[in-house]
Structures are given as structure tokens and as C-alpha cells.
Amino acid sequence: MLEPPTHVQPSPAPSPAADAGFAVKMMEPPPKPIIKSLSILIPVYNEERYLAAVVKRVVDQPLPGGLVREIIMVNDASKDRTWEIMQKLPEIFPGINFTLINKTTNEGKGAALRDAWSKATGDMLIVQDADFEYDPSDYPKLLQPILDGKADAVFGSRFIGEPHRVMYFWHQVANNVLTMLSNMLTNLNLTDMEVCYKVFTREVYSKIQVKSPRFGVEPELTAKVARMRIGHNGEGDRRTQGRHVRVYEVGVAYAGRTYEEGKKIGWKDAISAIVQIIRFRFSD
Questions:
Q1: Which of 122, 250, 271, 274 could be joined to 37 by an S-S link, Cβ 3.0–4.6 Å?
Q2: Confidence (pLDDT) at 84
Q3: Residue 151: CATH number of its domain
Q4: Under 8 Å CB-to-CB from 23, ≥6 apart: which residues?
Q5: Is residue 13 part of a domain?
Q6: Is there a domain that residue 10 lies in?
Q7: Whole-model pTM?
Q8: DSSP secondary structure string, 163-217?
Q9: Strand 153-157's sheet: what is its strand order?
Q10: Residues of the chain with pLDDT under 50
């Protein structure tokens, strides 16, 4: 016996008002992240001449969105009056939250950053050198891509249009080679991998454990950001493991120092950087 035909109730057509509401929603920009604080990490070695003035510039720099700043400083066993000066800074700038770390053995910039990294509590993190090579007045444009919800990490660049002091030719050649090698292994298209100014959201920096003791920390951070996926719980295949970190690059001013003025990086650090580029491309 044949079954009587089944009558399927057609779904109601969406109303014009619903279509309009959906279209308006699709045109709205994605919500901006809630970011209230910035951790500023400053590794320091033998900077008694510049330190107080640099920190004053960091403190005086207005931050977008009324961000609250914390300053985490690590004295990497300086041989001058650096630690003595560091201890006076909380009294000189009473409205700023300082964390001061004094190392008794010199281990290098990367090791100092590692110690500061573990103390950071901000919604964003930025690395600042303790001299006048980099200008904190660049903070707003470094932070803005993250505040706008466009980026998870922002790298500065000394070579895309901003004023910079004319310095050593072979340093420029070495930087270009290191950046190109890093780009080849990370598939990023940075113009200045070795730049000091790097900014990360908490979601990004909380996943990084710094291991390079010296200036190899720059390619290490770059490689780890390039490989990182965020917004997932570490389970499942790639489709459920979140997305790659969104990296932006903005031009920053640069007033490089000569060796007579206290510059510390040398050719041995370039060799070490090559090793770290290869190492962190394939391991963590």
C-alpha cells in the first residue's frame, strides 16, 4: 500500500528587515580588544650615562587610550653605577609601577629579557633599550595596530621611511642578510628582523619562553611568533588549532650609537644570530 504523500511545511522566507540587519552586521568592523595596560621591558648593562634620561622619556610619553604602564628593568651585572641609579627611579617617578631586578652575573640581553618577561602582567608588552637609539615617541604608532584589533604582534623597522642616523655600512649589510635568512625560514616579509621594538599581546607573549642569552633573542622571538597559532587549546588538527599570529610592521626612528658611545653588538653576535635563526625555525 502506498503511503500518503507527506506535506513538508516550507521554511518561512527571511524578512527584508532580517536581511537588512544581517547586511549591516557584516559591514561592522570587528570588535576592538580590551587593552588597559602595557608592560615595558628594559634590559640594562653599563648605561649610567643615559639610563635616567631614557626612563624619563619612557615615563613622559603619552600612551593611546589611557594605557597604564609598568616598567620592568633588569640590571645585567653592570660594572658602573647603573644599579645605583635604577634603585632611585621609583622615587623619582612615584606614579609608575617599577619592577627592578639586579643580576650578579652578566648573561646578555636575551637572558635579561627572559627574567623581565616572567614578571610582565600587561595586556601588551614592548621591549625598550636603555639608550637613545630608539625613541619612545614611536610608541603610539607601534601600539595602534593592536589597539585597532588588526595585529597580534608589531615589529618596528628602521628602514621604511623614518629618520635614522647614518651609521656603519657593514652593519647594514649584516642586518639585511640576517633579515633575509630569517624571512626565508619563517615565510615573513619583514624589513628589519633585528629591530629592538617588538610589541606583543598577552596571548602571544605568554606563549613565549625566551632561551637565547644574548642578541640571538631577536631571531628567536621572530621565529616563535611566525610558528605560533593562537585562539586554540592545542588539540585537534590545524583547522581547529586557531590562526597564525597577525604581524604588522611600522617605521621607527633610529639614532644608532658608535662603539665609542657604548654600542655593544659585534660580529660574533651576527654569527650567533644565524645559529638562532636556524635553531628556532625547527625547535622551540
A1: 122
A2: 97
A3: 3.90.550.10
A4: none
A5: no
A6: no
A7: 0.81
A8: -B----HHHHHHHHHHHHHHHHHH----S-TT-S-EEEEHHHHTT-----SSTTH
A9: 97-103, 68-76, 37-44, 124-127, 198-201, 153-157, 247-251
A10: 259, 261
Q: Are strands 124-127 and 97-103 parallel, antiparallel or unpaired?
A: unpaired
How many angstroms separate the most distant Cα atoms in the chain?
102
Reported as half-sphere exposure (CB side, CA atoms, 13 A), residue 92 has a value of 14
CA 21 to chain centre: 38
Would you state the cell numbers that stand for residue 123, as one nine-digit string?
595586556
* Total structural domains within the chain: 1
237 and 229 in contact (C-beta within 8 Å)? no
3-class DSSP state for residue 75?
A: strand
Classify residue 5: in a domain, yes or no.
no
Q: Which cell numbers hold the place of 244?
A: 597564525
Identity of residue 117: W
Residue 33's pLDDT is 83
Query: The domain containing residue 99 runs over which residues?
Result: 33-282
- Which residue, 245, 219, 213, 217, is CA-closest to 231? 245
Is 118 a domain residue?
yes
Q: Report the amino acid identity of residue 215.
A: F
